[in-house]
Design goal:
The chain is mainly α and 222 residues long. It has one domain: Rhomboid-like (Rhomboid-like fold), CATH 1.20.1540. Helix 1 runs antiparallel to helix 4, helix 4 packs across helix 5 and helix 6 runs antiparallel to helix 7.
């Protein structure tokens, strides 16, 4: 299922959502257009989140913690970036409306950090860099699921040669998304190698669902 738009217009300009999109796109251009392949690999290993580093004493505190943040703004390829930007644009503006700009920024980063830590818990010995905004965006989806369950999501459903566009309730669309991530996460347990960080998605969604009410109660900026 591919979301195309929701039916809830934002009341204010989604400043932070737009800024996050610009940052993600700018970092992608730097990674994949301005860097040569050798430099790109070094950047990914330096700023991507590698779970094993958290538990090895030879790495400094900076080397352990900085990638928790920087990895949130890096992407492996064009379709990785496109998918994340699509979900961010469709669902984040309404969450930003509810939380306020500053609160939404802190909320988004918090979900991304928690998502990375959950990924580490299920991949303690992984030496593979995890990159992408998916965990933070999953937090936005968790918040949207709680705050806008009756919203309608215009969805493209590809089925072999038949592609249909239908409106689906947000609680069903996002509930199905989470269940799909959870099942794939369970099936991925014990697997060695790279791939999609399903547990980061699961952790981010649960973090967003759990934290959003506390951010609603602390409105410092609108």
């Amino acid at each position: 299922m591919i979301p195309l738009r929701d039916n809830i217009p934002h009341r204010r300009l989604p400043v932070v959502t737009t800024l996050l999109l610009i940052i993600n796109i700018s970092v992608f251009i730097y990674q994949h257009i301005l860097l040569n392949p050798e430099s790109l690999e070094k950047v990914i290993y330096l700023y991507g989140f590698i779970p094993q580093r958290l538990f090895l004493p030879q790495f400094s505190l900076k080397e352990k913690l900085v990638p928790l943040f920087t990895s949130i703004f890096m992407h492996a390829g064009f379709f990785h970036l496109l998918g994340n930007c699509l979900y961010l644009w469709i669902f984040a503006d309404n969450v930003e409306d509810k939380l306020g700009h500053f609160n939404f920024l802190i909320f988004y980063i918090s979900c991304g950090l928690i998502a990375n830590l959950v990924h580490a818990l299920f991949n303690l010995y992984s030496k593979i860099p995890a990159i992408g905004a998916s965990g933070a965006i999953a937090g936005v989806l968790g918040a949207y699921f709680l705050m806008f369950p009756t919203a309608r999501v215009l969805t493209l459903i590809p089925f072999f040669f038949i592609w249909e566009i239908v409106e689906i309730p947000a609680f069903f669309f996002l509930g199905f998304w989470f269940l799909y991530q959870f099942l794939l996460g369970v099936f991925s347990l014990g697997r060695i190698g790279g791939g999609i960080a399903f547990w980061a998605h699961i952790g981010g969604f649960i973090a967003g669902f759990s934290l959003v009410k506390s951010f609603l109660r602390r409105r410092y900026y609108y």
